Amino acid sequence: MLINGIEIDLAKLEKPLLLVKEDEELLFRQLIQSTFEHELIQCQLALSTRKTISLVKDFWLAMYKDREKLYINSEHALLHPIRLIIFELVTQDDYFKRLSKKSFGDEWLSLIYAVVLLQFVLQWIKERFSDNEEVYEALILLYINSDDNVDDQTSPSREQSIGQAIAVKAIRSEVRENSQEFASLLYQTYNFLHYLHDIEEEKETNKLPSIKNVDDTLNRFYKKRYTTNKSTITG
């Protein structure tokens, strides 16, 4: 499927971090394909690569399913340490838990929450490490499609493993040292998702169009945050 000008096979995403049933895999594929068909592409960081769409699926599962029935697939997690640290830091936050309570059992609402949340988190990470060449070299694969044909079951090279380890340590340290700012990011994202939900109820439309054509709203929202001086958040 052509996504943001790049051909991505939605049937060949990276292996999920969570244990997932075949019917859940199929459901996500149907949801995300329908999302792209409706031109819901404002969140370009979250929906631009095979890796980020795989992370959307991780968040979607964590919001859609009962938390008591979520289990990390340790074999897959070892292959994707950067995805894992982002997933863990976000899902452990209270605001994520509040969102997951609201979206539990609702496949569309879970997808909307997952996409918007990941957009803001990836933008924050991108900003924090854009001037750190060592870390950014490891992170850049989240933002570009150059590795989309790589077999993600293959063990990374020694250099890649070292780079991933450095990035994981840096992300964990950055969140710990700026915990208030990271919490503020998730809090504001939580509020923004409430805003989108209110728009949906006011228009009395189905859930899919509720975040269609919200590029300006996303940008206005993000400009209010003190961590950015960029004019846009969509790439």
Concise overview:
The chain has 235 residues and is mainly alpha-helical. The chain has helices spanning 22-37, 50-64, 74-79, 81-91, 94-103, 107-129, 133-139, 158-177, 179-203, 215-223, and strands spanning 2-3, 6-7. It starts with a strand and ends in a 12-residue tail after the last helix.
Question: Which features does this protein show?
Answer:
235 residues, mainly alpha, two-stranded antiparallel sheet, 2 strands, 60% helix, globular, disordered C terminus
Topology of this protein?
Blueprint: E1 2-3, E2 6-7, H1 22-37, H2 50-64, H3 74-79, H4 81-91, H5 94-103, H6 107-129, H7 133-139, H8 158-177, H9 179-203, H10 215-223
Helix pairs in contact: 2-6, 4-8, 5-6, 6-9, 7-8, 8-9
Write structural notes for this entry:
By secondary structure, the protein is mostly helical. The chain has one domain. It is about 60% helix and about 0% strand. The chain is built from ten helices and two strands, in the order ββαααααααααα. The protein has helices spanning about 20-35, 50-65, 75-80, 80-90, 95-105, 105-130, 135-140, 160-175, 180-205, 215-225, and strands at about 1-5, 5. A two-stranded antiparallel sheet has the order 1-2. The longest helix has 25 residues, at about 180-205. The chain is globular and about 40 Å long. The two termini are about 20 Å apart. The relative contact order is 0.14.
